[in-house]
Here is the input.
Amino acid sequence: MLLIKTVALLCSATAAMAASAVVSGAIFDGYDTTDQSASSIDIFQVPSNHAAATASILVYAGELTHFSPATQEPKSLVQSYNGFISKVSSFPSFQQSSHVDESLFLTGSLSQFEEIISESLEDRKAARALRGLVPDNIQDQSLTEWVLSLIVLSKPEGHDIVSFKLIRVTLIILSDETQAAYIPRQKARIVNREYMVNSAHLSSLASRLAQSIETIVNVDEFIGYFTSPKGPSQDEEIQNGSTSCSQSRPLFKDRQAIMSWLL
Here is the structure.
C-alpha cells in the first residue's frame, strides 16, 4: 500500500528537471484484428494487422535505443528514454496529430493524482495505468525526480485505424525513513504526444520492414516489453474502442528516411 503524505513544501517538476528514474508501462485500447498466422510481410502490408505491425516497430525502436523497461532498472532507463522517444517520433509512417504539454498541481493524494491526469488526458484508463506506475517504495533515497512513461496503443472496433500515445508525467516522488514512497505537494508536468499510423505508407514499406525487423510481436508481448516490473497489469487493459480519426494523410515519399531509420 503506497503511503501518501502531503507536505507544506511546494516542489516543482519542471522541464529542466533531470530525471533520476523512469518507470514504464503500456496498455492496448480497442480490438486487435491481427492474423496471428500472417507472414512478416503481411503484418506490415495488411491494414487489419497494423496493431501488431505498430507494436513491432515500437519494440524495434526500443531495441535500437537500448530502452527495455521489462529488463532494466528505473535509473538505467534514464539514459535511453529520450533516445527512444526521438526514434519513435522520426518513423516516417507515424504522423503526430497532437502534442499537449501542461502543468499538474498535485496535492499529495493518489486519488487526486489520478483524477487530474484523467481530466488532462480525457482518458480514465490511461490515468489509472499511470497511477499504477507510482512506486510503492524507494530503496535509493537519491532517486527523487521520476518520469512515469505510458504508451497507449489503440485500434477501434470496425476500423483499421491505428494510433498511439506517448505520455510522460514528470514529478517528484520521495521516500521516508521506512523507504515508503510518497508524493509531496507539487507542480508536476504532463506531456502527451499522439500519433496516427499512416496505413497506406506503412503498407508500402512492408517488404523493407519485414527484412529488417526480425521479431514480430503481438499486443501482449508489446505490453510485456514496455512494462517495468512495477507497472499496470494486463487485467487493467481497455476493452472499448477509441474515437476514430480522419485517414486523410499525405504519403511520405522519401524512401531514404525509412532506410536510415532502420539502421
In short: The two ends are 44 Å apart (CA to CA). The chain has one domain: 11-158+169-231.
